[in-house]
C-alpha cells in the first residue's frame, strides 16, 4: 500500500483548504485548533511551533499571507474571518461575514 496523502488527527477532510504552506512552515486546522510546524533550513525534520486555539467554533479554512510569514488567516463556522499573528499566538484582526465563508485567501497589493 502506498500513502497518497496524510492529514493530522481532527483535520476536516471535507474542506480542501485546511492545510497551508509558506516557505519552511506549514499549518493545518483540526476542528478547534491550528497546528503550526516549522523546519529549520537544511533540516529534514518538522517541529511543532505553536498551537493556535479558537475554542468556540470549528475552523473551516486557512491561508498563509504570501509575504508576511507571521500572518495566517482562518475562517470559522460562526461566520468570522480571523487574522492570526503566529509568532505572538493571538488574533490580531477579526471580521464577521454575512454567511459562513468556505475559503479564505490573500489578495496581495502594494500601497
TrEMBL record:
InterPro entries: WD40/YVTN_repeat-like_dom_sf, WD40_repeat_CS, WD40_repeat_dom_sf, WD40_rpt. The keyword Repeat applies. Keywords: Repeat, WD repeat. It comes from the Eukaryota. WD repeats lie at residues 52-94. This is Anaphase-promoting complex subunit 4 WD40 domain-containing protein.
Amino acid at each position: 500500500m502506498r500513502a497518497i496523502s496524510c492529514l493530522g488527527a481532527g483535520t476536516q477532510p471535507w474542506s480542501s483548504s485546511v492545510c497551508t504552506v509558506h516557505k519552511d512552515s506549514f499549518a493545518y486546522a483540526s476542528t478547534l485548533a491550528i497546528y503550526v510546524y516549522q523546519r529549520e533550513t537544511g533540516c529534514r525534520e518538522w517541529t511543532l511551533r505553536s498551537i493556535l486555539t479558537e475554542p468556540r467554533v470549528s475552523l473551516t479554512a486557512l491561508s498563509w499571507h504570501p509575504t508576511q510569514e507571521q500572518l495566517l488567516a482562518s475562517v470559522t463556522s460562526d461566520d468570522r474571518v480571523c487574522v492570526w499573528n503566529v509568532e505572538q499566538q493571538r488574533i490580531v484582526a477579526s471580521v464577521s461575514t454575512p454567511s459562513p465563508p468556505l475559503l479564505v485567501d490573500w489578495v496581495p497589493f502594494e500601497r
